[in-house]
Design a protein that fits this description.
single chain; 153 residues; alpha+beta; three-stranded antiparallel sheet; two-stranded antiparallel ribbon; 7 strands; 42% helix; disordered N terminus
Length: 153
Amino acid sequence: MSRTLTKGVRDINIGALKNLAFLAANGIVLAQYHKEAFPMSTQHDLLSQRQNLIQQIEQLPPMRIGTIRKQMLPRKHKDGTITRRGPYWTFTYSKNGKNFAKHIASDREAEIYNAQIESRRRFRDLCAQLLEVSQKMADLELLQDQGKKNSAT
C-alpha cells in the first residue's frame, strides 16, 4: 500500500521510495535522500527564505513585551449613583514572575505602546518562521548526508 505525505516541501510518495529512514522533527516526516523527494532548488529556496526572514527581523521597530488595555473606572457619587470615569489606558507586563502595571497618560502614548507590542508579536512570528525554515534546512542536510553515505557503499 502506498501513502503520500505532504509537509510543505513536496509530496513524498512513501511507497515509491527505497530504503526509507524516517526521522520526526516537529511533525515533519523525512525520507532518505531521493532526488524526486527533494529537488536541488529546495536548498536554494530555503536559504532565500531564511535571508528574507532575517532582513524582516532587522527592519523591525522597537518592541515591548506586555499588553495594553482601556479601562473605565467606577465612581460612586454622594447620592449613591455609580458612573464610570475614563477611558484610562493601562500597560501590564510580567518580569521575573512578578506582574507590573503602568498608567498611560495619553492616547498618543497608548498608540506608541500598541505599535511596540505589535512589533514584538511580529518578531515572535518571524522567529517561529525562521526556526521552521532552519529545521527544514537541517533535515535536508541530514537527508543529503544519508544519501552520500548510501552512494559510497
